[in-house]
Amino acid sequence: MTERYTILEYLERTQRRFGERTAVEDDRSSLTYSELVTTAKRAGTAIARRVPSGRPVPVLMEKSPRMLAVMLGAAYAGCFYVPVSPDNPPGRLEKILRVLDSPLVVTEEETAGMCRDAGFGERALDAGKLTECEADEDLLAGIRTGMKETDILYALFTSGSTGVPKAVAVSHGAVVRFIGHFTELFGITEQDCIGNQAPFDFDVSVKDIYSGILTGARISLIPKTYFATPPRLLDYLCGRRVTVLIWAVSALTLVSALKGLDYRVPKDVRMVMFSGEAMPPGQLRLWQAALPEAEFINLYGPTEVTCNCTYYRVGRVFSDGEKIPAGRAFPGRTVFLMDEDGHEIAQPGRTGEICAAGESLASGYYRDREQTEKKFIRFPVHGGGMQRVYRTGDLGYYDASGELVFAGRKDFQIKHMGHRIELEEVESAMNAVPGVTKSCCVFDRKQNRICGFYMGNVTGSQVRRYMKERVPVYMVPSGIRQVAAMPLTKNGKTDREYFLRLAVQARQENDRGKEKI
Hints:
- This protein is of the alpha/beta class.
- Helices cover 34% and strands 26% of the residues.
- The strands form seven sheets. A nine-stranded mixed beta sheet has the order 2-1-10-9-11-12-13-14-15.
- Strand 26, helix 16 and strand 27 form a beta-alpha-beta unit.
- Helix 8 packs across helix 9.
- The longest helix has 21 residues.
């Protein structure tokens, strides 16, 4: 351990050990660890001359080795980076840049126009010019003397209940501590190649990036277009000899549901970690059958806890309808359940809100004290002294073995026919129907009806009949509809708003039909 816990000490330590090894690559370019540090220092010098220390540096680019170098360059400048996806619609992009209010927005040729359209064109600077700047070692060394582990390393935007996106700010120390435990628990070393699926503005990518930086592993950035064609994706994984996958559930199920594993199996993969949504057991079984020697790990935790707070090593085959546990807390963390009256829950089977304390909580929401104080509270964990705690808004319970089981979002808990229902539980039952590969259920509050959408080779009447035999009638969706694909949000989760719009549209069309009669 170094005296200062910033990520830069670890990056340079890895450079000294593995300087000529590839640090990061995609389908078009690559950087060794020495080249990554050199390029980051050049970008850092250019940023430091334009942006005061402690300020955000928005990076509006498609993910690439150069983008990673720019992000690390922001850290060298004593600033923090904010990856901004080019997939953001213009209105949201404008809100993000307004919240950050940075004097600089790093772009590239393909995204400079977007910055202009959002009204920030005069602040745009091309990444190529940043990385061509000559590094000023004296300037960077002076900045380093004032850096500390509590300095913000990055901020990632999540949706805001007020309509204004919130930027979750995470410190150097939070990342170093979490990734230190993460790489040690799962045995990630310089011999690994990590296949990066997630965009850089999604916190799953934090595990890819910093697991590489802390250990010397190779980070292979998979182009997002490859996920539309599983054979191309699998050829890439095999060709790059990827050993570790840390992916969103939706990405894994996309491959298995479209029978990609029948085409080719990435036999070098030794570990598959998944998070973001509940993994359908049927899809997990397909991966387990294809990679019988690989280890599978369920990860849980929102962005505000720095990636994850619990993990579960999958040690058996799960049946349809079973829930794969979220598991137990990472070292340095405390995870517990809180009831609606603000008391801890200890007994198995009783549902409460999942809360996290201990190491690696986010610093809060950038420039949003009200939301920070609302979500990050002080609480006497396990009856001890007051600690800083993050209330996740997720529901969970302990099973008979003491493992935490994710039970859905508080937002997705509905009252239907006099019963309190978790929509994820309805989806779990639908996913258990033979022939269903994935499902999504939404609640049309105006009509007080549950609507279910599914992918698979089974009819809607068969889905309904199967569910009626296994769940109470009040949990069977009133409307069941087959779809060809499951649209995703930019973070790789099922787009529930899309399906809610479909449900409302179907109801309105039905109402118009009745009026004509």
